[in-house]
Design brief:
By secondary structure, the chain is mainly alpha-helical. The protein has helices spanning 3-20, 33-47, 55-64, 67-70, 75-82, 84-92, 101-112, 117-130, 140-156, 162-175. It is built from ten helices and no strands. The radius of gyration is 16 Å and the shape is globular. The mean pLDDT is 96. The protein binds nickel (II) ion. Residues 35, 65-66, 126 line the site of nickel (II) ion.
Length: 180
């Protein structure tokens, strides 16, 4: 399958599962698939700046990265459709909500670190995409803690992907202007 076909299969599958639950970008009517395609776009651009990067694999993980956290799809179903490696990588990117909230990110990061660098890259791309102007109802504390978490991800995933690390570092600087 060509990378274009791989992309189309993954985005169609993910878009449908998120749309079935009427998921949109927070505070908007924009379909959730826009977030997924933004993460995939970051990955595609990064791939062209990165040696030894499995773009076909990474693009699937990018497009499917929220499907286990936000829909009723199981790891088994995902593995049947996209293979074991994609499914277990998406699982690593999925927060375990049985854990206390304050432990969920560090647990997730430690599982991501056991995966290939493409999976680390998806985590960076996800946060880059999410560091857009915050929703107007977010207070200063919430914005500050989101920024702190972004710094934590950048620090922990050092060595993931130089291009995306630089992008995230830039977004972190820009985001500071929203905390006033
Ligand atoms: Ni996401």
């Amino acid at each position: 399958m060509s990378i274009q076909d791989i992309y189309q299969k993954a985005i169609r599958y993910a878009a449908e599962k998120h749309a079935e639950l009427q998921q949109t970008l927070p505070g908007s009517i924009i379909p959730y698939a826009v977030h997924l395609s933004n993460v995939a776009m970051e990955i595609l651009v990064a791939a062209s700046h990165t040696e030894e990067f499995d773009t076909e694999f990474a693009i699937q993980v990018a497009l499917l990265h929220d499907i286990l956290e936000d829909t009723h799809i199981t790891v088994e179903e995902l593995a049947n459709e996209f293979g074991n490696e994609v499914a277990t990588s998406v699982l690593a990117l999925t927060k375990r909500d049985v854990l206390p909230k304050e432990d969920q990110m560090s647990d997730c990061i430690s599982r991501i670190k056991q995966c290939g660098k493409e999976v680390w890259a998806v985590k960076l791309a996800d946060r880059i995409t999410n560091l857009q102007p915050p929703p107007s109802h977010w207070n200063k504390l919430r914005k500050a803690s989101y920024l702190l978490e972004a710094n934590y991800i950048l620090k922990e995933l050092h060595g993931a992907n130089e291009y995306l690390e630089n992008r995230l570092a830039g977004k972190i600087v820009e985001y500071q202007d929203y905390i006033i």
